[in-house]
């Protein structure tokens, strides 16, 4: 008798263990998202789960190179990733994404044709990605520190502030950060030198690297996400960074009422404009959920909520009536036609150029 009972218990335990994962899989819906840091209103993730029942596992990165390494290695485990246009371009060619099933994206109708057209440069026929957010790489600054050192906040309206060593030196004591991204900083240096920011000429790229080497002694840190908080708290006073991250720093400082005022400019010589896009890796496991996530981001109210929170422009025309005037009328977020003329885009680098840029970048950062 005792033996029968023990056997019965063992069988039930085995059956339960065998059933449980299957049961869990069929009822729990999950989407694994890999996005840039500080690139979504947390409320949007919460609302998405409440609306769809799909759980979000959310990880962040702050560099296209980090994302690319995972994508090229395969089996990243992610269902949604957010590559910038010029990385998307070569990743599509490398075959790491699957085509979107547009029948599953009814809200795609809200896409802004202007942005869709620009995205098609990287994704011909717009088959693999939809735009999420876009922005510019410009100068973020502490208003009081800038006035103190150069007399007027207008000093930030030119790249001279960054690329003239005698200017940047004046900010060394209050903290200068640069993005840890050769595609942003070397491109800005090329543009400042009057060269093509997409140059593949090694001599020109080396000149850009020399320029950055000259200002290197005044740089506290090369980092692509910490500056947001550092600028908001007053720990640094100057950064070459991404528009919306600097806008978020400004808002955090306002909310903290810590006396820090943060400004952002697109320098008059021009700046880089980038497009960050939602795409589904070829080996994604939760394809329906990934489409549901993209479609949710394309809802006008949702896209607007993100832009209002982040200070980044989005690729959703229908969202604009829900975007606050402060964001929509901010020419450094939604640039007007004349600012737009000064903006340039980066294309995918060939391997040789990319290797050279990465090598020079390491040399700049390590000071060797
Ligand atoms: C968000 C940064 C996204 C812009 N923190 C870089 N493509």
Walk me through this protein's architecture.
- This protein has two domains: 29-134 and 274-335, Periplasmic binding protein-like II (D-Maltodextrin-Binding Protein, domain 2); 136-273 and 346-366, 3-Layer(aba) Sandwich (D-Maltodextrin-Binding Protein, domain 2).
- It is globular and about 60 Å long.
- The N and C termini lie far apart (79 Å).
- The chain is α/β, with parallel strands linked by helices.
- Strands 4, 5, 6, 7, 8, 9, 10 and 11 form an eight-stranded mixed β-sheet that branches.
- It contains 17 helices and eleven strands.
- β1 (29-36), α2 and β2 form a beta-alpha-beta unit.
- The chain binds pentane-1,5-diamine (N2P).
- The site of pentane-1,5-diamine (N2P) has 10 residues, from β9.
- Pentane-1,5-diamine binds at residues 36-39, 84, 135, 242, 245, 274, 276.
Please render the helix and strand layout as text:
Layout: H1 2-27, E1 29-36, H2 42-52, E2 54-61, H3 64-73, E3 80-81, H4 85-93, H5 113-119, E4 129-142, H6 143-150, H7 160-163, H8 165-169, E5 176-178, H9 182-192, H10 202-215, E6 221-222, H11 227-233, E7 238-242, H12 243-256, E8 262-265, E9 271-279, H13 287-297, H14 300-310, E10 313-314, H15 325-328, H16 337-341, E11 343-344, H17 351-366
Helix pairs in contact: 9-10, 10-17, 11-12
Offer a few descriptive terms.
2 domains, 368 residues, D-Maltodextrin-Binding Protein, domain 2, eight-stranded mixed β-sheet, single chain, alpha/beta, 47% helix, three-stranded parallel β-sheet, binds pentane-1,5-diamine, 17 helices, globular
